[in-house]
Amino acid sequence: EIVLTQSPATLSLSPGDRATLSCRASQSVSSYLGWYQQRPGQAPRLLIYDASKRATGIPARFSGSGSGTDFTLTISSLDPEDFAIYYCHQRSNWPPTFGQGTRLDIK
Amino acid sequence: QLQLQESGPGLVKPSETLSLSCTVSGDSINTPSYYWAWIRQPPGMGLEYIGSIYFGGRTYYNPSLKSRITILEDTSKNQFSLKLSSVTAADTAVYFCVRENMDRGIVNRLDSWGQGTLVIVSS
To answer: Best mutation site among B3, B22, B35, B47 for testing chain A: the one with the most A CBs within 10 Å?
Structure first.
């Protein structure tokens, strides 16, 4: 099973700041990595797939990069609605797995 | 517009079987274009992939749960379902039904989620 390790566990920033979230895989997932945002009481929402492709309707301030084992989600300028939990996910190897999440808090 | 809606009992007794259904509207589940999956999230914790079903009824289960889960489809009702047997308190979670989308035959995104349903395992 591929383990996805996200860092940091919590990130405290202010609106307008740049956020950089990391996801590291225990073995290569090629570019088959996605990022999801989960707000309290809601289902996760797809942000990025194939490491760098923005999903339909996702603002351009969200971008993804990386391949192999190291991936990054960047939010260029934080909007108040961006404070949430972010998960990475791989389906390159069975079973599909998720990272433990990064909580993005308002500073 | 695609919508997925979970339904089923919110309380299940230990050792019994958890049964949930997902009703899909806005698209047919009887298509080779998507997989249909179950994912769960214990309260305050992360996400766990349970398993999925594909066109023609082919199923794919997480090995950690494989001995206890059954995923079925009912194309006449445009539903798919989850059964999880011999439940314990550790199975208490919000259960999501999800559409898995693909490009060039490779599943690469969970692009549509139900709102989730909380199932508590307790006597």
So the answer is: B47
CA dihedral defined by A5, A6, A9, A10, rounded to 10 degrees?
A: 180
- What's phi and psi for A33, nearest 5 deg? -130, 140
Chain B interface residues (partner A, CB cutoff 8 A): 46-49, 60, 62-64, 96, 100, 103, 106-111, 113-116
Per-residue pLDDT, averaged over A41-52, amounts to 98
Alpha-carbon distances of B67 from B63, B64, B71, rounded to whole Å: 8, 8, 12
| CA distances to A34, A104, B98 from B18, in Å | 29, 33, 18
Chain B hits for A36, CB-CB cut-off 8 Å, are: 110
Yes or no: say if B112 and B33 are a contact pair by the CB < 8 Å rule. no
Q: Tell me what the mean pLDDT of segment A5-13 comes to.
A: 98
pLDDT number for residue A80? 97
pLDDT digits (tens, 9 = 90+) for B30-51: 999 999 999 999 999 999 999 9
- Out of A46, A91, A100, whose CB is closest to B107? A91
A44 and B62: CB-CB below 8 Å? no
Mean pLDDT, range B74-99, rounded to an integer? 98
**B99-105: average pLDDT:** 95
CA–centroid distance for A58 within its chain = 13
pLDDT of residue B33: 95
